[in-house]
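To whoever is on call:

I kicked off a structure prediction for a single chain this morning and the downstream step that reads the tokens threw a length-mismatch warning. I double-checked the sequence; it's 342 residues and nothing unusual in it as far as I can see. Pasting both halves so you can look.
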Amino acid sequence: MNYQSYNEIRYGFQSMKQTFDYISANKEWIYATFLDRNDIVFVGCGASYWASVSGAAIMQKKLGKKIILLKAADVVMSEENYKHLYDAPLFIVPSRSGQSKETLQAIDILKEAYPDHRVLSITMFENNPLMKLSDVPLYLPWSEEISVCSTRSFNNIYLTFLLISMILKQEDMGEFDKFFAMAETVYDRLDYEARNIVSAMHQPQIVTLGAGVQYGAVIAGAYILVEMAQWLSSFYQTLEFRHGPIVTARQGTWIFLSSLNSTTKDLEDGLVKEILAQNANVVLFGRDSDFDGVINVKVPQFSEQLRGSLFVTLMQLVAFHFSVKLGLDPDKPGELNRFITY
């Protein structure tokens, strides 16, 4: 396929390996960054914010402490609400371009409000303004896309959050040896599943569901369909879908559910049965056993955090193939800009 975005998604694991090596090589520097910080505050916008939703949840779970999550646009539009709240804060700021206006304005506001701050940024574009505002600039140029939508950059930001959390917890990272050894085969399988799913779709209503550390990934999975395929899609926390939105499930609805872990299996199963009773299609992702009546997309039993990244990759491939099916250009969807500077 002669589309840049397809290559950026399909072979995204290659850039993730570079990120893994880079973060591993700098783990002492990263660990020291957190030592004298009391509050950890994620700040982002767009796809970087959705990655932060999962990043904050992963870090909170692993460290056992409250992590704060801010939308840059909220800080810019209501700056008085974000003063006098944090103690010796570390602001973690992901931004593909490092040029997004809301993010830069928010960091200026927060730096002024908290003189004892520190800023750790994650960016891809060369010599970007956010790097110059940062005390700890993590730079991942191999993650930048040529196409418009945030695909491999999202997965690299997500991976960086996971790796940082594991460094702080001083966890073994042996799982990644297994992941990268299997990655090409796993991504090939995801591409195969995405093609088959899209071939069966006809004017679908699309919903993504997930929970916990995967929730930000689930949101990103819906957003990439909106951006790349220009197709309105919805997302909900898994059980939240039962409280009202389930009435919209009907024949022609496609619901993608990212399974969290074994302790949530019975709750997820109950919801799937309710959805199937309304003749909707269910794609159940990440289970090691089959569920009758649904499309079971299986992946190796990596951690729930790492499976969140694979769910995003599946949805990126669905968005790509659906965009092509609709006769659109997935590399340049509509008038979408790579980043907002105005």
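Update from on-call: the warning came from a stale cache, not from the record. Cleared it. Sanity check on the structure: The chain has a mean pLDDT of 96.
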